[in-house]
Amino acid sequence: MEGLNPLDILIHIINFIVTFVLLYLLLYKPVSKFMHKRRESVEQALADAAATRAEADAYLAEAKAELAATGEKARRLSHEAIENALWIPHRTKRMRSCKKRASRCVRKSRRPSSAHIRRSSALQATLPRASSPARSR
Predict the structure, then answer these.
(1) Which of 12, 83, 109, 129 is spaced 20 to 30 A from 123 at the CA atom?
(2) 3-state secondary structure at position 127
């Protein structure tokens, strides 16, 4: 047993323990601390992203509602415009018809009055004139 010296084994064990403690203190703790902070920052970023997504979803829902209302209003206005455009020729035709009827009514109302005036004039011409006292003076 010449090759195995108990002192060498003890020195190797002590060397291993010192190396383990130094590596633990110099590498494991800082790396562990860094990883813990990194995990917390990732979790915080995910929470912020979820909150932002919820806010974006709310804005999206609001925008969709406004878009639907605007679309409905646009459809209603275009429908009204189309209906009005379709009624314009009918209204124009009806207006012309009403104007013609009105002018006929006016002409008819003038005709009897013209005839009436002619008849009245003819009757007055046939009647003897009475002299008025105011004219004789």
Answers:
(1) 109
(2) coil
Q: C-alpha angle 75/77/82, rounded to 5°?
A: 95
Q: In angstroms, rounded to a whole number, what is the distance separating the alpha carbons of residues 131 and 85? A: 69
pLDDT of residue 137: 45
**CA-CA distance, 73 to 79, in Å (whole number)?**
10
Walking along the chain (137 residues) 10 residues at a time, the average pLDDT comes out as 82 96 93 95 96 94 92 88 76 77 75 64 67 51
Q: How far is CA 137 from CA 69, 103, 130, 132, 134, in A?
A: 89, 49, 15, 9, 6
For residue 67, which amino acid is it? Answer: L
